[in-house]
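Final report, Chapter 2: Outcomes

The project's central promise was a pipeline that accepts a single protein chain and returns its three-dimensional structure in a standardized token representation, suitable for archiving and comparison. That pipeline is now operational. To close this chapter, we reproduce one record exactly as it appears in the project archive, with the input sequence first and the structure output second.
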Amino acid sequence: MNEFGSVPNTYVADGHHRSAAAYNVGKIRRERALAAGKTVTGEEDFNFFMSIIYPDTHLRILEYNRVIRSINDLSEESFMDRIQENFATLTPIADGASHRPVGKHQLTMLMKKQWYTADIREDLLAEANKGNVVNRLDVQMFSDKVLRDILGITDVRNDQRVDFVGGSRGLEGVETRCNEDSIAGFVLHPIVIDDLLQTADANLAMPPKCTWFEPKPRSGFVVRLFDQ
């Protein structure tokens, strides 16, 4: 237990909703106990929930990619023109070349079985650099300049025109979706750990569906029984 005293900060990398739910259950249980006249010491089972701690150097973040199911009333050519006006310069990728972004501020796009690099425009990067760490994230700029400004998508979690392909599914997952039910796919460069830590330190929230963490512990079924 004393080893935890050497850990300066901990961050929730995966499981924010579960952590919040566990906290709320503990809060309700404490309030019930106090209302019943019981003594609450802080050692009760409801004050704890299970977690696993990794050092940031042992954590890998994969990309969380996007597929677009509808481009509204735009033609595919008009959609690509709007991307270049609003967001990034598109360049076809030659056969045999890598379809992955080479670094931050580059995405790749698949449309009509052709891959493109999408280099975020310099003026957009300069504008983003005036904001906070979240404004500077490629995924946030993509959401603002493509999903919102071109397609009118403001709620990426619930809008049926956009869907997500976890990084563990690779480029093949994006290609499969584009063959099955999507018009275009976008592969993002993975978020770097420093961006995540800086976002948390600034009391900001990461954009939805932007990180896919590895390693993931083997799933199990754990039940904690509270004393009645």
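Archive annotation: The mean pLDDT is 90.
This record, like all others produced under the grant, will remain available to the consortium after the project formally closes.
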